[in-house]
Design goal:
Dna Ligase, domain 1; 6-stranded antiparallel sheet; 3 domains
Amino acid sequence: MFAGSLTALAADPAVAAVALAVDLVHELDGDYSYPLAILDTAERTDKPLAVLSNLGSAIDPELARQLRDHGVPVLEGTRSGLLALRHLLDHARLQGDAGAAGQASGAAVGVGAGPAERPSVDVARRARGVALLAASATSGAPLLSLLAEYGIRAASSLPARDLDEAAAAAEAIGYPVVLKTDEPEVQHKSDVGGVLLGIGDRAQLAAAYADLAARLGPRVLVCQTIPAGTELALGLVTDPELGPLIVVGAGGVLVELLADRCVALPPVSADLAAELVGSLRVGNLLAGVRGAQPADLGAVIDAVVGLSELALELGDQVEALDINPLICGPDGAVAVDALAIIRVSD
């Protein structure tokens, strides 16, 4: 009876996914009706099929394993399970294939990319990217250059190992400049006082360099000063099942204060990027508040799309990449700092 009902639901063209809501607990009487009904239905439909259990902590792990081995997700907890189903259907809609929601959603669960055609790889750009990632192990400047390869505007920056090199870099970039520690072991520069702003001349640069060199080491990065704006954080993180994921959220100090972020599977189109940015609470600031000029939303969208392209071409090279902050203002969106975790070859 359960298998027939589930199969009938799956056969309905208006239904995109089917979930059997049942607490998959250990049955003392050996009754396996629920899992057998699900497995029977799975043989009769290509649409996404899942078990939705309210009592996540009471799930029979062996039954769950058997179902998962046959490609049937066991969703642990009503709220998280329903969210998973919503995201699955949202993915189909965002891929522009609402008429085949079941097929698209199934692809989202199985391989992560959905039915959207992946853009071709720019072989030459990928080769340059691999080289820049390798160079970024010794300095942060190549990583910002890597972002520029993918159309993400980055603040001008030059590495230096002593005061004379720092002064030459500042003259080349133009005062005022920002001085940052570039010691490889320091990942979160602001947390250790490793970012000094508003350096207006050689004397201020000398004092700032002496401070950083004494506290953190001689390697520094001399950077262009970017006008204040709304700060976003863009990220790339690799999931063991889904592959590279794109994260868009509030940046700067807000990244620690607000759980304001959204995640998407690449490739990310301009339309999807606009929807992601628009879904953020901090996204309202981009429109301009209290007399502030609105940010260049097109540049923000281009940065998200560029990171998606980077993920598709270099996702096998990095475990994670963090752009924080991306300063968004009326003159564009500029990455002023980035951090990458390079994937170690097996």
